[in-house]
Structures are given as structure tokens and as C-alpha cells.
Amino acid sequence: MPDLARIMLTLRPTHQDTVPAWTGRAAHAWFLQALQHINPALSERLHDMQGVKPMTFSGLQPAPDGELLTLHPARPLWLRITTLHPDLTNITLNGLAPQWEGAAITLHDQPLQVESMALETATYSDLVEAFRHKKLRRYIRFKFITPTFFKSRGLQIPLPSPELVFGSLLQRWQTFSTVGIGIDDFKDFMHQKITIDQHNIHTRKISFARGQRGYTRGFVGEVTFFSQAKEQAYLAAWHTLAAFGAYSSVGAQTSYGLGQIEVI
Amino acid sequence: MPDLARIMLTLRPTHQDTVPAWTGRAAHAWFLQALQHINPALSERLHDMQGVKPMTFSGLQPAPDGELLTLHPARPLWLRITTLHPDLTNITLNGLAPQWEGAAITLHDQPLQVESMALETATYSDLVEAFRHKKLRRYIRFKFITPTFFKSRGLQIPLPSPELVFGSLLQRWQTFSTVGIGIDDFKDFMHQKITIDQHNIHTRKISFARGQRGYTRGFVGEVTFFSQAKEQAYLAAWHTLAAFGAYSSVGAQTSYGLGQIEVI
To answer: ipTM of the assembly?
Structure first.
């Protein structure tokens, strides 16, 4: 039984229209509504939950730089849904995903045809085992696909500071996994040994509603992190967290589409 | 008598040749050698000085992305020299700069013709007074012209974290100025109120010698900082430090060409 799932839907608009550029909130609402039909208690619990939720939604991608996303039948979009807890993963894989395949779904009042669905799953133990006996690189390269920012000391920080990126991943891992990542002093390693080797990043504005005054900014782009430590145990834990990041996302508002990453 | 000077030389190569891309160290050596002739004691003291030195050199600009800078008579270059202490400013303006105008100088064994020289000077009090009674914006936009990185906890950090950028400026100000910046708890303001609104940055590799294995990386690009505080006293101190930054540069290795900024 997998703990984690990552579902990639390819969606084709059925007519032409425009919606606000950032549809992460709409995807979140759509998912909870679908869940409502098969498990109302769980749907409500997730809705009311404070802090980091055990699921993420990319919103419709690629999202434009401007305020509006134009839907057009000639332009397919993708939506990534991830789940981080075994119970939610189970109900998503067995109760929800089978309904999506080949169906029409409605997001932000827009009918979209599901053209294809790709599925990856893992257990927390898988992610630990995968790196335990490998020869590991001292580099990890992330692509920040959707805007990412961190909250720290009440401020919004749109920078890939290693301790914020890997601190966010560690916190999520510890929230949702019953398996340890293999070392106890990961925080010290993170603070003392991980640096940035290269980056190419820029901020992007996000407002979830058209013409809304309130907005936030996150960064997108590529970042290569480097470990000054060579010890296998640290590198294994570090790569495990990075692989987990492709399910968990990093930073703030990950259940609304922000902080989606890929290890490249 | 000014405390600070910023001298911009436009230089024309007299023949074609190649030199390592980062000539900040060569400019540093050239300056100390020129100073040696008129004040050997000061030249030696600056050479042996630990920590932040009271002068910066941009190196020949624009510097290329690769390892080598091609000198060509058809392509003028610029070199910025700044001084941060009244004694050094005085001797630079009255002893050195007059020798440069219209002369040929030698940098990294390359003869370069000084085509023009532009000069800006200020006192620390000028920089404080300039912002004391103005209506001030809550934004400050920097262009990081040469690669910039910070040292913190023994790590190299190529990110424009507000507390590193303005912390570096505050430290320099306090090292070289006998005038206060106007508020005592600037550090708290910096930690609690300054965020990044926008950025567009990427790292660039720097090696000071051709084919050398050791290298470092800094970021270049544009960053807009935002103050959540509106109080005039804080904004004035903040803008004062930013204006000072165009003389002092920020971060590590500023006497070798790194961390040169412009307020834009």
C-alpha cells in the first residue's frame, strides 16, 4: 500500500474562455468536493485543517505570467495532484482517480476533458531505501515549477535559502511519515553544510482572483544545492528529502498550487 | 572635504590581448602600487589589512561570462574605484586621480588609455542629510552589477537575503563612518520589516586566474526590497545605507571587484 501518490492529469478545455491565472484554489475546491461524495468526514477534516495539508495541487499549468489563463480546445493543460498520507492516498487512488480517467471534470466552472492520467506512487520506506546503498552525488538540482515562497519570522521570503527549502521538506516528512529519514541531526547538517552552487531564478506574481488587489510573489527557476559533507548517511537523507519534495512541494500555500518542484 | 569618492574610468585597450575575466585583483594591485609611490606606509597598511578594506575596485567591466576577457582597441571598458575613508579619499583625489587623467595605466600587464574620468564624492553626513526630510519610497531597487555573495556561518551565500545585504552595509557604515545613520535599532528593523518584493537574479562563476581550479560564485541581477515599516526615521536610515552601498559595495571580496551595486 503506497503512502504517497502523484497523479498527473492532461486536460483539454472543451471551449474557449478565460479564468484567473492561478487555479490552485479551484483545484483544491474541486478535489474536496469530489471527496465529499465518497467520504464527507475526511473532506471536511481536510477543509478545516490548519497548517500543512497532506495534499498539493499544481493548478492548471502552464500558468501565464499575466492575470488571466486562456482556455482553448487546441491547448491542453496539466494538473498535478499529490497525496502525502496513506489514508488519503488510498481513497484517492481507489475512490477518486478511477472516476477521472476519460471523464470530464469541472474546475472553476470550466469543463475539461481528462485526456490522460499518469500515476506514480511510493512509500516513505521506498524513499529511504532508494538512496541507502547508492553512490550519491553531492549536488541536488531543483526546478521550482510554480512560484515558491517561505514564511519566516512573519515575513514572506521568495528565495531558495537551503535551510528554508530543506527545513520545509524535513518538517513535512516529520509531519506525515512514520519512518525516520535516517539521521537525527539533519538540521545541523542543513545549517552547516548545504550551500547553493548555481541558480537562475526570478519572482512571479500570484493573485488567485482576477483584478484582486491582494497578491503575493514567489520565485521560479532552477537551483543547484551542494553538500560540503561527503558522508553517505547525510547524503542519503538529503536525497530522500529531495525525492519526497516532488510529492510534498515546499514552502507556503502548497495546497493552492505553490512550491511545486522537480528534481532535475 | 569628502569622506567618500567614486571614480569611474573609461579605459581603451591599446592592443588586442586576453586576460582572465575577473581583473578585480589586478586593479587592487595596480592601485596599491600607485599609492606606494606617494604614501608607502598607507599602501602597506591597506595591503596587510584584515577584514573589509576602505576601497573597492570593480575590475574591468563589462566582464564576460566565460574565463577570458578579450581586450580590443575598438572596445572601451570601465573601471570603478571607490574609497570609504576620508584619508584615503583625500590622497586618492589629490594624489592619484590627477595622474590618471589622459594617461596610460597598466593593469594585469596591459596598457590601457584613460579616455575619461567621472567623479562623485560625498560625506557621511551628506548621505544622512539627503534623506532626512524627503518623502521616501518604501521600495529600494538594487542592480547587482558584479557577482555578489555573503559569508555567513562559514558558508558562501549567493542570495540577496535582506538581512545579509543591509547587514553588510550597516557593518561597513559603522566601520568607516563617525556619523550615525540616525536610528539605533536598525538591525531589528532589518530583520523584521524588510522583505523582497521582486527579483531576477542568476549566479555567475568567478575565477581570478585563467584555468584555476578554485572558483567562487556570486549572483548578479536586480532586486527590489520592500519595507513593511512606514516610519520616516527607518526609511531615511535605510535609503542612506542604500546610497552608501554605491560606494561601499556589499558582501565578500569587495576590494577584488565583487558586490558592486547601483541603486536604480
So the answer is: 0.90
